[in-house]
Amino acid sequence: MSAVSPEYKHRLSRAAATAAVLAAVSFSLPARAVSDSSSATSEPSAPGTLVAQALAYEHGEGVPKDQRKAALLYCEAARAGDVEAMVGLGWMYANGRGVAHSDAMAAFLFARAADAGHAYAREMQKHVGDDVGSVPDCMRPAETDPPVALMDDSPDPFADLSAGKRKIADLVVKAAPQFKVDPRLALAIIATESNFQPEAQSPKDARGLMQLMSATAARFKVRNRLDIKDNVQGGLAYLRWLLAYYEGRVTLTVAAYNAGEAAVDKYSGVPPYAETRDYVRRVRRLFPDERHSFDPRVAGPSPILGRSTADSSKGAP
Q1: What confidence category does residue 142 fall into, taking pLDDT thresholds of 50, 70 and 90?
Q2: Which residues are part of the catalytic machinery?
């Protein structure tokens, strides 16, 4: 992919000037686009405002240059259907600015913008190839329940564990009821997280059977993340809390175990991350039940849930 054309530079320059004016008057970066700890109840910014802010960050006009934030802002607006945002994000994918280079994702974005009549997007399609449907993860709609392939007559995935894995499974089966967690849900998490490997460690430094991050371990008073008993009890405590927070909704609980409750709340469902969606599918294949009992005394409900008397009554253990 060659550098951006003079025509597009001119378009960006004019738009960036507008963004700089906006930044000087009233600049507020939308939390939903850049913060994992934001609340889903925040009022979203208008797509045009997001595009102006994205341009400002992309070019350092009135704010520190930050192309990653620019890409997130473009994507927020593109998800809302803004054509200029699709073009801006497509250019970033085509040039590897703020995101990993991907002509396929650029082609998807330029094709959508071209379909809306954007002349520059039609021109850019010649440089990045055909649209093959490679949708950027950040543009995928939030899902409450990703499709999973489940069959009632599937063999029990925990029936033929090796001796070492069986020993761990027996510990989980014994400990899980103390936390009011279905042992099979805990086993599904362990199988997906670490494949029953007590020494497992992720690139993000999640450790142990239930892959606890240091902050999660501290939150649930785990002294040694690589100790089998400590790790399992910490993971079960977190699952108990998430089940209460999402009132027994398994899909949301599992998604939050992988991506964090802040991300699930932000997107009002399973976040549009390929890793998290795959993770939810894998766990749900092992644990197909969508509802789980929960203790409402453990945590108040997530703000994304619409509470009702009927729903609340189902949760009491």
Answers
A1: low
A2: 193
